[in-house]
């Protein structure tokens, strides 16, 4: 459960409210369908821990937009692929990887909530190769913090691009774990 007390002391600015978030997810799904009309050979992989909430929403909406079309969907934990795994005081607790299919020769769409430095995506690319060699990898993110990149990684699908300073954080709240749906800028 998220402790909201520290957040109340910080300045919060809403980036996307519940309605805007739903519209953004719908738009992202339509963009995916525009680039993958029949979703053949397309797989969706959500990144643990927070990217899976977005990927769950994307997956469910794609099923609604393309009923009867199979879309392989998996969840990827990158804990042991991180470049800071055993460094610093922060403890990285692994979650569960659930990919019950090969990605060999597939069109993979990686899904994460916030693209910041690019290091999470680099780790995901390394981890993903354990499941095969995809034909192509695309990146779908809800929020792109474009001026914070440390690696040359850019998203193919973006919900919203924001400019923020390094001391600010972006937090995506989802109904399931957080009892609200909203994207906020903290700091």
How would you describe this structure in keywords?
PyrR, 5 helices, 187 residues, 3-stranded antiparallel beta sheet, alpha/beta, transferase, globular, PRTase_dom, Rossmann fold, 5-stranded parallel beta sheet
Q: Number of helix segments?
A: 5
| Overall number of domains | 1
- The chain-level mean pLDDT equals 91
CATH class value:
Alpha Beta
Structural class: alpha/beta
CATH architecture classification: 3-Layer(aba) Sandwich
Low-confidence stretches: none
**End-to-end C-alpha gap:** 21 Å
Largest sheet at a glance? 5 strands, parallel
Total number of strands: 8
Radius of gyration: 16 Å
What percentage of the residues does DSSP assign to strands (E)? 25-35%
Helix and strand pattern: HEHEHEEHEEEHE
Instruction: Tell me the CATH topology.
Output: Rossmann fold
Helix content: 25-40%
**Shape, please?**
globular
Strand order of the largest sheet: 3-2-4-5-6
Give the helix/strand layout.
Blueprint: H1 5-9, E1 12-16, H2 18-35, E2 42-47, H3 51-65, E3 73-76, E4 107-115, H4 119-128, E5 136-145, E6 157-162, E7 169-173, H5 175-178, E8 182-186
Function: Also displays a weak uracil phosphoribosyltransferase activity which is not physiologically significant.
EC number: 2.4.2.9
Pfam families: Pribosyltran
